[in-house]
Amino acid sequence: MFSFFYSEEKKLRKSAGHWLELADRVYKFRRDQLTAKQLEQLLSATKAVQGAVKGSAGVKELEKALGALELILRETGGRIYPSSSLVENVEFFLVAAIVILGLRAYIVQPFKIPTNSMWPSYYGMTASAVYPEGSAPNLWHQAIRLVGLGATNYSVSAPATGEVLFPVYASTYDGTHYSFRPAFAETSGRSLLIFPTRWREYTFSVAGEQATIKIPAEFDNDFQGVLDEAFKGKSANLYDALRVGAATQKPLQTSTLQRQGRATTVYWVPIGKQVQKGEKILSFDVLTGDLLFVDRLSYHFVQPQVGSGFVFKTENIDSPEMKDQAGNQIHQYYVKRLVGVPGDILEIKEPALWRNGQPITGSTAFAKNAIRDGKYPGYNNTGNLSAMGTVTVPTDSYYALGDNSPRSKDSRYWGFIPEKGVVGRPLFIYYPFTTRWGLAN
Fold first, then answer.
1. E-only strand ranges, 276-389
2. Among 111, 227, 417, 420, which residue is least crowded by beta carbons within 10 Å?
């Protein structure tokens, strides 16, 4: 840092140390590839530099010794010397990657809050805006919103001119009208190229041509509100618009969609929206869930504490709720709040959660949910913690609930979390830059 204060001789002696390290590296890694003459020359030039450094050699003598060493290194160095900038960069990134992977596996791991099951403690994905035709942000504005707010734009354009048809499953038909559920396909992938996630694909049809939009599966509950705002027209919501459309077109067009490993009938319902080819059928922004770092180290030394945020892997939870459409085990990271450790007896007396016969303590979220304070909605007694029911946490297992109980799929639905699935606890929210930025609750 302060090398500009050094004398010419001191700079040269410091440089000589680097050349000697390089010569030693060439000798160790390439001596079996060098001739006897080359080895002799390399060792001789190395000793000359060592002698000049240790002795009282002047600048000119040291420069001469280093020059001779550099010449023999050029002849014997192979890929070690002289090395290209490409090789140096590759080595740097490989070392950096190894360090990052080590940190991620054993100390700190990035994590994205996928849903609003922990709201308002942590925020999941939420819809920011549904854009009318012609008002969607351009690429520059999308970039600004992405950096500042974590907003990602999702859109689908009309493949032809005509009326938009929306795919639904018809769960019931009483001879007069259908009861509808939106149809979708499900795939797996990664969000931000890092976080494992599942995607849901919704397909629209216009004049016999189809266009698809893919959204994160965790956003699906909020997606219903987007569909209502975009397609309800004069109706109260999308479902009412679908019933009107189904009544005006009989019989409905049908096709099949693979769902849970088998072909399922899909009905195509007109929703009263006319589009021109190339227009946006749908365009909206999704604000990212909180991005945080997870402490993977602590639980190797201390037991998880009730009340702490709790990150775990789903792959070890044996439940139908942890299977995708095709019946495959879901492999994801979830975050909830730890409410029960082995031996605990849990029950819900709405809106409060009780542990071992007493109102649970250990987190601000517990106290606020118990009185439905502010944004905290209280705990719902459903699933295996239904009214008048209790649950005892078995050995080597944990029980976790979301702070947003009415909208949380948690241990009430898929049961206990095996100890081997525990990952760590939320440590620090690093994005987006909101009032929640900082240490995680």
1. 280-287, 291-295, 309-313, 333-340, 345-349, 352-355, 358-359
2. 420
